[in-house]
Amino acid sequence: MTNDDDLSASATADAHLAAIVDSSFDAIVSKDLNSIITSWNRAAERLFGYTAEEAIGRSILMLIPDDRRQEEVEIIARIRRGEPMPSFETIRKRKDGSMVPVSLTVSPIRNPSGRIVGASKIARDITATKESERRIRLLMREVNHRVKNQFAVILSMVRETGRRTTDPREFEQRVRDRIMALSRSHDLLVNSDWVGASLAELVEEHLKPFGRENQTRIDGPALRLSSNAVQNLGMAFHELGTNSAKYGALSSDAGRLEVTWQIVAREDGLSDLQLTWNETFPPPPGERRSDPARKGFGTVVLQRVTPQSLGGHATMKREGGTVTWTLTAPMETVSASERE
């Protein structure tokens, strides 16, 4: 092979390498041992905002925040000594002054005789990765908080159910049903990444075990509930549904259940959620059947736990063949969007 052939092969290889560098999705920058930029690919333009004409010949320090300048000193020192540089994550500065998290890989550049004359840097934008990590941390904190809260609710549930139940089998069944109701609310929250759930979905989910969909009407404006509202309203819907399936509208083919809500403006410029659970059904013949939920755990949930947890108030009315539970609560404690 002639010298011309050698030169041609070398030029071809250089052209291929230049094409690879220029088309890379990662920013690739080279610099000399004085930290002066000597090459700058298109991805570097996109990432940092400088064109190649603006960057080449300037110090790499223009990309480094003041509080991280020592990184460059250490990088150059290690490159001069020929020490390997593991990839690391850091922050770099764009032309507009904004900061961007990057993963950096630094490698030495050698001349034909093998002497180190500079360094090549590959910078990868890890903004999306950092955002995902942030969301995961937030989610884990939320899950940790909710799990602790669930434990407290379950302990209270077991305690209150035990006070009002003497039959061990009945106690076991009631606790199991209530824990399953909590689980249904929990599933809705998990499916939404713990950002809340639709009020309509919550009602539907807690009425599923009782069937009789053709006797039920659910109506109201679209509303995404906060995770706290999902849990507490879910408990209320379970207690109401269980009682209805035993004694009310969902216990006979002639019953009718309507769950409706509206958002009402207050004088202070804020709004309230007004929710109504209304049942109509044929009164039982003779004496009206007793309703154990009136003095049981269900009453505690409906008249105290749920309204207080949402900063609102509730009323329960039972007259003949009707049962009406009404809840009024401020939107700032109920709506997920109000809390963002």
From TrEMBL:
<feature type="domain" description="PAC">
    <location>
        <begin position="86"/>
        <end position="138"/>
    </location>
</feature>
<dbReference type="InterPro" id="IPR035965">
    <property type="entry name" value="PAS-like_dom_sf"/>
</dbReference>
<keyword id="KW-0677">Repeat</keyword>
<keyword id="KW-0418">Kinase</keyword>
<keyword id="KW-0067">ATP-binding</keyword>
<keyword id="KW-0600">Photoreceptor protein</keyword>
<keyword id="KW-0808">Transferase</keyword>
<dbReference type="InterPro" id="IPR011102">
    <property type="entry name" value="Sig_transdc_His_kinase_HWE"/>
</dbReference>
<keyword id="KW-0547">Nucleotide-binding</keyword>
<dbReference type="GO" id="GO:0009881">
    <property type="term" value="F:photoreceptor activity"/>
</dbReference>
<dbReference type="InterPro" id="IPR000700">
    <property type="entry name" value="PAS-assoc_C"/>
</dbReference>
<keyword id="KW-0288">FMN</keyword>
<dbReference type="GO" id="GO:0006355">
    <property type="term" value="P:regulation of DNA-templated transcription"/>
</dbReference>
<keyword id="KW-0675">Receptor</keyword>
<protein>
    <recommendedName>
        <fullName>Blue-light-activated histidine kinase</fullName>
        <ecNumber>2.7.13.3</ecNumber>
    </recommendedName>
</protein>
<dbReference type="GO" id="GO:0004673">
    <property type="term" value="F:protein histidine kinase activity"/>
</dbReference>
<keyword id="KW-0285">Flavoprotein</keyword>
<keyword id="KW-0716">Sensory transduction</keyword>
<keyword id="KW-0843">Virulence</keyword>
<keyword id="KW-0597">Phosphoprotein</keyword>
<dbReference type="InterPro" id="IPR001610">
    <property type="entry name" value="PAC"/>
</dbReference>
<dbReference type="Pfam" id="PF07536">
    <property type="entry name" value="HWE_HK"/>
</dbReference>
<dbReference type="InterPro" id="IPR013767">
    <property type="entry name" value="PAS_fold"/>
</dbReference>
<dbReference type="GO" id="GO:0005524">
    <property type="term" value="F:ATP binding"/>
</dbReference>
<dbReference type="InterPro" id="IPR000014">
    <property type="entry name" value="PAS"/>
</dbReference>
<keyword id="KW-0157">Chromophore</keyword>
<dbReference type="InterPro" id="IPR036890">
    <property type="entry name" value="HATPase_C_sf"/>
</dbReference>
<feature type="domain" description="PAS">
    <location>
        <begin position="13"/>
        <end position="83"/>
    </location>
</feature>
<dbReference type="Pfam" id="PF00989">
    <property type="entry name" value="PAS"/>
</dbReference>
